[in-house]
Every structure is written in C-alpha cells, then in structure tokens.
Amino acid sequence: MKLQAVQAFLQTHESGSISEAAKKMGKPRVMVSNWIGSLEDEWGVTLFDRTGHKPVLTHEGDKLLMICRSLLTTTEMLERKVASLHLPDEESLAFGVDHGVEKGFIWDVLQEIERQHPAVNITMKEGFDDELLSGVESGELDFVYTGFNQLDVTRFTCQQIGHYDFVAVCHREHPLSNHDELEITDMNSHRQISARLHPSTDASKIRLSDSFWQVSDYQSALALVKRGIGWTVCPKSEAIEGIRSGELVILNHPQAVYRWPVGLLWRIDHQPGPVMQDLIHSISENYVDQ
C-alpha cells in the first residue's frame, strides 16, 4: 500500500473529482486513478461509485475514510517529529487562532508549552480564516488553528482535527423567524450582518442580502441581531445560549446549519521546529468538536 494512493483516495473525496485531485497533487490523472484502483484491488472493496458525473463514496469507502485520514496525519506527524529532533528550539513562534473555533483549552496548552520550552517567545493572533491565511502566506504567522475549505495543497500543509458548526440566526420577533420554509429570496429582502470585516475578505462571496452590514466580530453581530436589526451567520457555540433561551431562532432554511472542517495549517515550505511540533500536537490532542 502506497501512502500516495491513500492521499489520492482522500483528495478525490475532498475535491469531488479525480481530475481535481490530480491537479492538487501535481500528478497525471491516470496515475491518481490507478492509485485508487490499486487500493480497491488490495483491500477488496469499491471505494467510489463512478456511475454518476462525480465519484461518490461507497459504504465501504465511508467506513475507511477517517482511518485513512488518521494514517496520513500520523505519518506526517512522525516525519515532522523525526526531522525536528535535530533542530534547536525556536527562539520565537507566532500562531493564529480563528475567531470561530473553540479556544478554551488553548490556555492550558500554552501553560504546558511554557513548561516544556521556557525560553521561547510566543505571539498569538486572533482573527478570521482569510486574515490568518494571509498571515501564513506572508510569513507573519508560523501556523494557524482555523476553519478551512478547498485549500491549495501545493502551498499549504493541512492537518484536519475535527469540525465546527455554523448557524444562520435571527431574533425571535424578526420577520424571518415566522417563515415555515425560507428561500434565498426571502433572506435577500432582510438585512444581513456579517462579522468578517477584513481587507482580504471578498464580500461578494458571503453577501446574500441587498442590505449588508459588516462588523469586526461575532459578538457585535449577535448584539445587533438580538435587537432585531438583521440576521447573521456565526459559530453555533457563539449563539447557543440565545438559541436555548429562545431569544434567537435558527432560520428555517436547508443550509442554515452546516459543518466546517477545522484544523492546523502552515506553509508547505516551512519546516516545523520542536516548539511548533509540540504545540500542533497538543492542540490536536485537546480539540473536541463543538
């Protein structure tokens, strides 16, 4: 079994096509297809249903998906750990934390890092995913703990550690709360409040309403929503108390609740040192899906 074949299996599932997987891996399409076929022959299973326009995971493929992810993650961690054994501790480390992810455990993790590496200088920056990704690209940040989707694997190393939920909410007395089944056109006519105010944000990709307000954080967006000013999309963990109390209502739309991958990523040309290795490992070990 080749690890590249396992990577081809995962990349095909995540990108939705063998051609796109081949492009992201920088390999010929026929090679990626053959790798997947060799896994199916070796394991005696069919990983994808190829009868449709796009390959779809079979029941067997779905059962093997998380194990394959774990295999690649463990292999990558081993390779990085071996490489870092001969490196001295970094003098400084800068990492980013997405506004939307769970960070309550981060303080305990940093306390342990301080015990293991007392001489290192650490900078932690909070922001949104696009802002933090810009920091990694520029070299300002060594790595980030964030939500992500459709990353360029030729430029970034990514280690997925779980998921977190987003919800679209409004106040219980807002007109949208009374709809039995919402359409996008219904949402267009009511003010959208976005908590993604950053120069690297392309507002056109997240704007659904004619009336569009932007603020700098989820708490500000929810404060406006609770006053009936509009609706917003935010991490479920930020809105859960208002949802439980009945003050906030999840919009009755099929995509009002969705899951987003969360993980750790850094530039592919950046070799993690001992401190970064330990911090990445600790965040991975302590993360729990929200």
From TrEMBL:
Query: Pfam families under this entry?
Result: HTH_1, LysR_substrate
The record's Gene3D superfamilies line, in alphabetical order, gives: 3.40.190.290, Winged helix-like DNA-binding domain superfamily/Winged helix DNA-binding domain (1.10.10.10)
Domain HTH lysR-type: from-to ranges: 1-58
Could you list this entry's UniProt keywords, alphabetically sorted. DNA-binding, Transcription, Transcription regulation
Parts of the chain that traverse the membrane:
none
One annotated GO molecular function is:
transcription cis-regulatory region binding
Q: Which family does it belong to?
A: Belongs to the LysR transcriptional regulatory family.
Which protein are we looking at? HTH lysR-type domain-containing protein
Query: What is the organism of origin for this protein?
Result: Endozoicomonas elysicola
Instruction: Give the source lineage, highest ranks first.
Output: Bacteria, Pseudomonadati, Pseudomonadota, Gammaproteobacteria, Oceanospirillales
